[in-house]
Design a protein that fits this description.
321 residues, alpha/beta, Rossmann fold, seven-stranded parallel β-sheet, two-stranded parallel ribbon, 11 helices, 43% helix
């Protein structure tokens, strides 16, 4: 990145998008945020991120859908972004069973729109949000970027893999620098209510039972939001010609350990219902993050034992528990 770039952040009212927007503004860049504020989860949380998390951080916000080519072209034409941080997507693995077209429209058509307009308006680089879900049920761990990713177990994963493929074609045909970042279970303050760390914390304070999938035998490579933001920022700064890079903690944590940390942080004992594996889920995620260190000079810093109490404290303050 130059000293002051104009950076378009799609999905900028989302969990990761809002945090990275704040960081980029603090670094002195001009940030243009686009988000459709959809109703997949509580829209008031997205609006609060813009009003509270991004308070006193000057930015331009457009409530627009990335698949609306006319609206997006107008934004590109008006602001002529030099970089794009493409975070917008229909999130969630299980929701795809209910509304598969939401994933096709947002993740595929939306990404195609962003890539095409980036080409037309001579954007100098793109960082694109991908996901650890592309690895499916891996044959060995930790997973490396060169591992096979052609057997997704969820539609969400299939769309994320498709976005990587479409991005490569735009890079190859147009010499467009693109870095795809595969995030591993991001958590932290201002997080998504549909994710386990959030819903379990909510259940702890409300005294409601939780469903523990995989009979509690699952493990996740939990990655703290500040570490993810640092990785995204470095990817924008380095602006590699083409890369796919894992961003994870590099250490799988048992689901039950995460639950224990939530119980400690909230001072509550969760009522647990142990249920089997979901068809669209995997038993473990675990990232090899050596490429991120080599290419971006990035290493994760925050442990789950540090991050969960920080999230729980934010939750108590935000919801007035």
């Amino acid at each position: 990145m130059d000293q002051q770039d104009t950076i378009l952040v799609t999905g900028g009212a989302g969990f990761i998008g809002a945090h990275v927007s704040k960081r980029l503004i603090e670094l002195g860049h001009k940030v243009i945020i686009v988000d459709n504020i959809n109703s997949y989860y509580d829209a008031s949380l997205k609006e609060a991120r813009l009003k509270t998390l991004l308070k006193d951080t000057p930015h331009t916000f457009y409530r627009a859908d990335i698949q609306d080519t006319d609206a997006m072209r107008e934004i590109f034409a008006r602001h002529k972004p030099t970089l794009v941080c493409h975070q917008a997507a229909q999130a969630g693995v299980r929701y795809a069973i209910q509304d598969p077209f939401a994933y096709g429209n947002s993740n595929l058509l939306g990404t195609l729109t962003i890539l095409q307009l980036a080409k037309e308006y001579n954007v100098k680089g793109i960082v694109l949000a991908s996901s650890s879900s592309v690895y499916g049920e891996a044959k060995h761990y930790p997973v490396k970027e060169t591992d096979t990713t052609d057997a997704p177990v969820s539609l969400y994963a299939a769309t994320k893999k498709s976005c990587e493929l479409i991005a490569y074609s735009y890079h190859h045909l147009n010499n467009l620098p693109i870095t795809c970042l595969r995030y591993f279970t991001v958590y932290g303050p201002w997080g998504r209510p549909d994710m386990a760390f959030f819903s379990f914390t909510k259940a702890a304070f409300e005294g409601t039972p939780i469903d523990v999938y995989g009979n509690g035998e699952m493990a996740r490579d939990f990655t703290y939001i500040d570490d993810i933001v640092e990785g995204i920022t470095r990817a924008l700064e380095v602006n590699l010609p083409w890369a796919i890079i894992n961003l994870g903690r590099g250490k799988p944590e048992p689901l039950m350990h995460m639950i224990e940390l939530i119980e400690t942080a909230t001072g509550k004992t969760l009522k647990k219902r142990f249920v089997g594996m979901q068809q669209d889920d995997v038993k473990q995620t675990w990232a090899d993050v050596s490429l991120a260190k080599t290419l971006l000079g990035w290493e994760p810093k925050t442990t789950l034992d540090e991050g969960i109490p920080t999230f729980a404290e934010w939750y108590k303050n935000y919801y007035g528990v």
